[in-house]
Amino acid sequence: MIVILLTMPGTAKAQQDDRKFRIAKIQVYPQYLDEYKTALAEHAKAAVLLEPGVLALQAVYDKANPQNVTVFEVYASEKAYEIHLKTKHFLKYKNGTLKMVKSLELVEVAPIGIEIKKRLLKE
């Protein structure tokens, strides 16, 4: 699946943007890193494929400190986010990774420019 989000110049003022943007900063215990990355990738794929209100879940880790994971989340609205928190795949991810997560910081952010080049992805 390909997700494209664009912020067009001048449109932010002209129309209400109900999207919810968040960054999750996660520290994972080193002994669980591979297992955590697998669980997070599975969750992100399911959320984007199955939930119309999940516009993007993009997860990366710091190459120098792999236990530091950052997830950029975009939801269609606050309601879409609330629905996401109740889904089977989110609950599986959350409950399955509790012991793996050393710390979690959720940061509410606002877009300046969100540009993603469309490209073909192998499924």
TrEMBL record:
Gene3D superfamilies recorded for this chain? 3.30.70.100
GO terms for MF: monooxygenase activity
Check the record and name the Pfam families matching this protein. ABM
Domain ABM: residue ranges: 20-110
Task: Give a yes or no for keyword Plastid in this entry.
Answer: no
Write out the coiled-coil annotation as residue ranges. none
Look up the domain of life of the source: Bacteria
Q: Which UniProt keywords apply?
A: Monooxygenase, Oxidoreductase
Protein's name according to its UniProt entry: Quinol monooxygenase YgiN
Query: Which species is this UniProt entry from?
Result: Pedobacter rhizosphaerae
